Amino acid sequence: MSSKPTPKVLYVEIDDEITSLIDRLKKLSQAEVLIVVPDRANLIQSIVNLKILNKEARKLNKNISLVTTDKKGRNLASSIGFAVFEKVTDKKDEDIPIKAALDIEPDEIALSPLQAVKNKLLEFQPIVKKSKKSLKEIINKVRKEKAIKFPQKLSKKEQITFNSQSHREVFVGGFLVIAILLLIFIIRIALPSATLFIKPKVKQLSYATNIFFVDQTQKQKDLDELNQNLINSTPISMVLEKTGSYPATGEIYEGTKAHGEITIYNNAPATKYLVPSRFQNKDGLIFWSKTAVTVPAKKGDTPGEITVQAEADDYDINGKLIGNRGNIDPSDFVLPAIPNLSPSLYYGRSKKPMVGGDIKVIKQVLAADIEVAKNKVVEELYKNIKEKLDDYLKERNGKNNTDLVFLDVPAALNYEVLDLQAPENIIGTRQDYVEVKAKMQIYAFVYSRGELERMLEQEIVDRVHPDMKLAKIDYGTTQIRVIEKDFKLGRIKCALSLDSATVYDFDTKTETGRRLQQKLKEKILGKSVKEAREILNNSEEIYEVEIHTWPLWTRSLPGVPGNIKIKIRN
Fold it and tell me: Are residues 353 and 408 in the same domain?
């Protein structure tokens, strides 16, 4: 067996600084050092850090090798001159943990560093050399060394002694087995353990970028200069037609006016001459006397009076048609022309109902009605664009098994009115509606929803913190704004933004999850339940934690990491 020393293993956290790593190296007596680095750690993301490490290693006479699955980090470290490994494998090329690999004798491990050449990365993984001796040879050797040699023939006394000794050995062996099993049982029942039920903290991640929707069937000279966020799209064109009827607003009134008798009263000592005058009731209805009259003067306590024929006006004081509303019960009236004298001196009163009021409104087409109708039919056609596009793409997707959608932004939908017609010479005619016909051509950008979502997901994942993972993309928050467009060239540039949710990754299937769980356990080893709960609740990664201990009366957490289990609650 070789006397070559076993390398010292150092584990690096994602956020460890180069200065702290160098301080740790200075404290080591071993010359051979193997540094295990997680993905996206600060150490291997900066070529400056690696150069500093290389320089300090030479000063300290340390031979440093790096183990990491981070492809970018391996490239950088290899370019500096470090021996770099992705993983350690046994002779069957099956992955084994790094710590286990380091327990193999140095002579049994062949480490082949990654060799970087121009534009190519050659990866040679560590392998375990084949044993020089067969299993049969080793077993035979052990048998020879440890076999008990008995004489061919024993005396009677020797046989009795040997049998007694054998029985004692069997008894002692059985007792030891029982004791060990009992000890395991006691440890299993009495040894403290704890289970942490954790809700990881969720954080919102806002994302914004520019996207080009491009018709790549056309010649696009400057695609390479645009942006990496290119979505293949196809401008489509459709023709829509619509005939709409819209109400005329002109009105012609035909009918009869309500009429009856109004008695005019005079409380003045002198007669009062009145031309055909207006009379108004409490509801604002207007009636007119048909002739001029002289109202007699008051005699004693009896006012003078005279009765006249009256007829309703077309409109009340609010400008509304009176029509059949003029058919009123007996009412009192004032003379609005002389408000300072009526009703104190002069007023009117109908002793019988007013009758005969009726009205008929006939619609008439105005010039403005035609313009309004044209604008409305175009507006309604435009509103139908989305519905027509949805129907068209639904049918197309069903036939071709695609997931096409149109860019649903007003500025990305273009239209052109091809025809707009209204009947000629209808201004002033009596009709209730104006009929208008319109034809419109629409243009829209169609793209694959899945292609856009896959691109966005990859972009967002690349921005997630190394300790977190993407939990959800909220496509309902998507906002798209058109920056520039060219329908002829088949290209449109948009600014897109949306929100997503990220959560701290405690999944033990990932390197990050195992590291975060180990980090939490180290913080609370041997702590009281109360203290551990306070530490975890104040942790950046934890939203909520619940701690269960065994036995139930235990008030502190185990001092052994293996006796602490972590379960994640979403």
Answer: no
Number of independent structural domains in the chain: 4
- 273 with 339, same domain? yes
Q: Between the CA of residue 88 and those of 65, 72, 98, 126, 228, what are the distances in Å? A: 13, 19, 6, 5, 37
Structure confidence at residue 361 (pLDDT): 84
Confidence of residue 117 (pLDDT cuts 50, 70, 90): very low
Are residues 123 and 19 located together in one domain of the fold?
yes
- In this structure, are residues 365 and 431 in contact, taking their beta carbons and an 8 Å threshold? yes
Q: What three-state secondary structure class fits 516?
A: helix
Task: Give the domain range for residue 106.
Answer: 8-128
Cα–Cα distance for residue pair 559/554, rounded to 1 Å: 13
Burial of 505 (0-12, 13-18, 19+ CB in 10 A): buried
pLDDT bracket for residue 109 (50, 70, 90):
very low
**Quick one: which of 80, 64, 53 has its CA closest to 30?**
64
Whether residues 35 and 56 share a domain: the answer is yes
The phi and psi torsions of 159 (rounded to 5 degrees) equal -65, -40
The SS3 call for residue 216 is: coil
pTM here?
Answer: 0.49
Please tell me whether residues 38 and 114 are part of one structural domain. yes
244 and 384 part of one domain: yes
| Confidence category of residue 94, pLDDT binned at 50, 70, 90 | very low
Asked whether residue 557 is domain-assigned, the answer is no
Q: What per-residue confidence (pLDDT) applies to 223?
A: 60
Instruction: Please tell me the distance from the alpha carbon of residue 53 to that of residue 47, in angstroms, as a whole number.
Output: 10
pLDDT in tens, 164-201: 555 666 677 777 888 888 776 665 555 789 999 999 99
Identify whether residues 18 and 51 lie together within a single domain.
yes
User: Is 220 among the domain residues?
Assistant: no
Cα dihedral sign for 554, 558, 562, 568? positive
For residue 258, being part of any structural domain is answered with yes
Nearest to 229 by CA among 505, 492, 508, 553: 492
Q: Does residue 3 belong to any structural domain of this protein?
A: no
Dihedral of CA atoms 150, 155, 160, 165 in degrees, nearest 10, equals -30
In whole angstroms, give the CA distance from residue 355 to residue 309.
12
> What count of other Cβ atoms lies within 10 Å of the Cβ of residue 111?
17
- 350 and 303 both lie in a single domain: yes
